[in-house]
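Data availability (excerpt). The following record was deposited with the supplementary files.
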Amino acid sequence: MEILASYTGLDLPAWSWAIVLSAGAGIGIAKTAVPGSGILVVTLMAIALPSRLSVGVMLPMLIFGDLFAVGKFWMHTDTRRLLTLLLCALPGLGAGYTVLRHASDDQLRPVIGGVVLAMLVLHQVSRVLKQRRGAVAAADGKTSPLLTAVFGFFAGFGTGMANASGPVMSLYLLIAGLPKLPFIAVTAWFFFIMNLLKIPLFLNLGLITMQSLRVNLLALPSIAAGALLGYWIVKRIPQERFNQIVLALAFVAALRLLM
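Predicted structure:
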C-alpha cells in the first residue's frame, strides 16, 4: 500500500484501495451488460475516497467504460430517441453543474435518491395502468414528449452534479420498452457524449487533477476486464430478467443515496 500511497499521494486504508482497484470492473459491467448499476460503484467510490475527489476520479473511468459499450453496441442505437434525450439533458447538465459548485455531496445525494424513487413510482404506476387496460406487456417504444423531456432533464441534472443519473436513464428506457441491446446502445452514447461535455466543467471546478488521473491509471485494467465480462453476461440475460435487475439496482441505489 505504501507504493500506491507514494504514487498517488493518497494515504488510504487497505479496504479503500481494494475498492479503488476493483471498482473499474463494476463500471465495465455496468456499461456493457447492466446499465444503471454503475450508481453502486459511484457510491462505493464516494465511501473509499474524499467525496469531491471521487467525483473527479469517476469521470475518466466512466468515459473509458463508455468506449467499450459504444464500440460494441453502436449499431443498435435508436438515434432519434438519443438526440431528443440529449437536447433535453443539456439544460439539466447546466443546472447540475451550478448545484455542484455550491453544494456538498452530502447535500446532493438525497436529492438524487428522491428523484430516482419518484421515477420508480412513476414506472410502477405506468405498469399498473397498462395491465388494467389489458395492454400488451411489451411496450411499443413510444413515449410522450413531456415524459422524455422530464427524464432527459433529470438525467442531465444527475450526471452533471454527481455522475449519478444511470438509474434515471434506465427507468426511462424501461418505460419506453426498449429491448436490452438498444437499451444499452442509447445509454452508452448518451453518457459518452454527456461525460465528454463534463470534462471542461470538472476541470474548471478543480475536480480533475494530476492526482485523480494517477488514480485513474490504476483502475483502467479492471475497467477493461469488467467490460469484456459484460460482453459475455449480456448474451445470457433474458429480457425480463434484465428489466428486473435494472429495477432492483435502481431501487437499492436510491435508498443508499437517501441514507
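Summary of structural features: The mean pLDDT is 83.
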